[in-house]
From TrEMBL:
Keyword field: ATP-binding, Hydrolase, Nucleotide-binding, Transport
Domain ABC transporter, chain residue ranges per copy: 2-233
Protein name from the UniProt record: Fluoroquinolones export ATP-binding proteinc
UniProt xrefs under InterPro entries: AAA+_ATPase, ABC_transporter-like_ATP-bd, ABC_transporter-like_CS, ABC_Transporter_VariousFunc, P-loop_NTPase
Organism from which the protein derives: Desulfosporosinus acididurans
Amino acid sequence: MTSTDDILSVQNLTKHFKDFTLQSVSFNLPRGYVMGFIGPNGSGKTTTLKLIMNLLRKDSGEINIFGLDHQVHALEIRERIGFVFDENHYYDELSLRDMSRIVASFYKYWDPKVFARYLKDFDLNPKQKIKQLSKGMKMKFSLAIALSHQAELLIMDEPTAGLDPLVRYELLEILTALLQDERKSVFFSTHITSDLDRIADFVTFLNNGRIVLSSPKDDILDNYGIVKGAQELLTSETKHLFVGLKINSYGFEGLIKDKRSLAQSFKERVVLEKPTLEDIMLYTVKGESAC
């Protein structure tokens, strides 16, 4: 269901390919928040992003951005969105300043003063050529471009992939500062779930073209649990509680979706730990395994 406070709403989105189907995907991103979009390779994340950005045509479902149909109001929506990708394609021989002039021609609300301020904040030299930038500097340049035309929604596809920990930290700090403006939101697709542990408010998890979960991050981490115990505690009745299990000669370790069920099902001592988003993704994808 769409709310008037949602900056992005995806409802029952479906896209069929020869060997893959994105099936009835639904989630909502409220204004002023960060949504992490996770899933293994081949889960449908890139397809979903392309559908949102009108690079693919959906088979069915609805996509509304700023409360507007993403196809009917495509030009208006584009003015209000910033895109940051893992690989951005710029003209290597151009300087940052010259490249920005080309990009500026596509946006009605481009603000050269804002762009200059971000270059200064990010310690980027406007006279430097694109080809001279490190990967981290290119990502900062892409972010400066995305933020210089009054974008309200920032869509990021693997923005921290391949960056060293210090640059990743700097980028996440920039995003945190950006969200002090409660009118802006970030849709952050990544496989580096530790980044989302730090900054995400909501998490949407896609696997095999279907939504596994889409909820506030804190609710997810509060409800799920990692359980460890002796192998003899596992029975046919208790096994069904687990999303995923690892079993070896020493015992078991598994993920449960609702840790409140633990006391009812395990009368004997087990260890309960709080999972990370990576734990939740890995156990869900791998299921039961013996090692």
